[in-house]
Amino acid sequence: MSAPYTTIENVKGTVSHLAAVPDAQLNLIIADASLEVDGLELLEKYQADVYKEKLTRYLSIHLATLKPQEVVKEKLDVLERTYKSETGLSGLSVTVYGQEYERMVNEYTVSTDHNKVVFF
């Protein structure tokens, strides 16, 4: 298991809207985000823990900010499900924190094929 690169204090200190999120829930989110960051092939100049902390913090905030999506359409034959999107955006684009995480991934990583990176 990877070490968490950020802390609950850093996450809550970056955004005020997560103040009411239980610490146990944030610990799980931070652990998940740390695993994702561990899977990135960072350029040598971005391998310092300070960059891993920022990547983990922004992905954690993005994940903690996501709201459960409302199903607007379901279809049984071939199992189709459509969700309501208030913004029309999906994946990391849904939050500004996800957008910043994606920008950092594009800048900090070796791969030019960022489709292999798991974007939530």
Explain what you see.
The longest helix has 17 residues, at about 50-65. Residues about 115-120 have low confidence and may be disordered. This protein has helices at about 10-15, 25-40, 50-65, 95-110; strands at about 70-75, 80-85. The chain has a two-stranded antiparallel ribbon. It has about 120 residues and is mainly α. It has 4 helices and 2 strands. The chain has one domain. The chain is globular and about 50 Å long. α3 (about 50-65) runs antiparallel to α4.
> Largest sheet, if any?
2 strands, antiparallel
Q: How would you state the average pLDDT, rounded?
A: 82
How much helicity do the residues have?
A: 40-55%
Give the number of DSSP strands: 2
Structural shape:
globular
Q: What is the radius of gyration?
A: 16 Å
Give the class from helix and strand content and strand pairing. mainly alpha
- What fraction of residues sit in β-strands? 5-15%
The strands making up the biggest β-sheet line up spatially as: 1-2
Q: What is the count of helical runs?
A: 4
Domains (count): 1
Could you give the distance between the termini?
20 Å
> Which stretches are low in confidence, meaning pLDDT under 50 for 5 or more residues running?
115-120
SSE sequence, one letter per element: HHHEEH
